[in-house]
Amino acid sequence: MRIRSHLLLPTYLTTAPCKDESRMILKHMLNQSAALDLMFQALADPSRRVMVERLTRGPASVSELAKPLAMSLPAVVQHLQVLEASGLVRSEKVGRVRTCHIEPKALRTAEQWIAERRTIWERRLDRLGEFLAAGKDEPDKQGGA
């Protein structure tokens, strides 16, 4: 049985690009993959998700971000460092106050990645539904007709 690769791969990988294009696509995917790994790893922690949620409403100081969390200020700073390393958050220090901001571009990257997978699976499920519906229309071959 031969597996049709266009059912398994995203559309941008199903065409046969030249070798240079293949290298560029692979390099882009690996770079994007590393960035996404950091982003999803950062979002895996509930405390960091609380911080990101708060920052979606606007900039906040480290002490503001720490208020709803049951942890020390140094622990909050460590979590923020993970969020900054992932690209989800940036911060700036003015005087004695460090203010954090959300990075919308990073969130859009994760959203795009999720949307691409959703589209792929919706197409697969649509094809499965069509296949199953077509099977109901055919007479039963085992029924002895």
Q: Can you give me a brief rundown of this structure?
A:
This protein is mainly α. The chain has helices at 19-43, 46-55, 62-66, 73-86, 104-137; strands at 60-61, 89-94, 97-102. The radius of gyration is 23 Å and the shape is elongated.
Written description of the protein model:
With 145 residues, the protein is mainly α. The protein has a domain at 16-103: Arc Repressor Mutant, subunit A. The chain contains 5 helices and 3 strands. It has helices at 19-43, 46-55, 62-66, 73-86, 104-137; strands spanning 60-61, 89-94, 97-102. A 3-stranded antiparallel sheet has the order 1-3-2.
SSE diagram, text form:
Layout (H helix, E strand, L loop, with lengths): L18 H25 L2 H10 L4 E2 H5 L6 H14 L2 E6 L2 E6 L1 H34 L8
Helix pairs in contact: 1-4
The order of strands across the largest sheet is 1-3-2
Let me know the CATH homologous superfamily of the domain at 16-103. Answer: Winged helix-like DNA-binding domain superfamily/Winged helix DNA-binding domain
Query: Count of helical segments?
Result: 5
Radius of gyration: 23 Å
Q: Classify the beta-strand content into a percent band.
A: 5-15%
Assembly classification: single chain
Q: What is the residue-averaged pLDDT?
A: 81
In the predicted model, the low-confidence regions spanning at least 5 consecutive residues are 1-17
Which percent bin holds the helix content?
A: 55-70%
